[in-house]
Amino acid sequence: MDEKKSNAEAYWAANLRLIAGCLVVWALVSYGAAILLRPLLSGIAIGGTDLGFWFAQQGSILTFIGIIFFYAWKMNCLDKQFGLEE
Fold first, then answer.
1. pLDDT tens, 6-47?
2. Which residue from 13, 18, 39, 72 lies 20 to 30 Å from 24 (Cα-Cα)?
3. 73 vs 17, 18, 21, 65, CA distance in Å?
């Protein structure tokens, strides 16, 4: 019973670390590149507009979708690591 409980706690801790990492990346891209660094990125052109605007409009959405796929892949790896795969 103790081993099962410690395994569950380790699994949950790994899941929380993964979630925290994904949230940090999301915040850096959404707030950092799109809002805080917008004046610095305004001189770099991409797709006919400046890079700061691109991050605010499309980059943050594409990054969020990428984070979703990354999270699903890493959770499958964690499930296999802890013997919880389907």
1. 888 999 999 999 999 999 999 888 888 777 877 887 888 877
2. 39
3. 15, 11, 14, 13
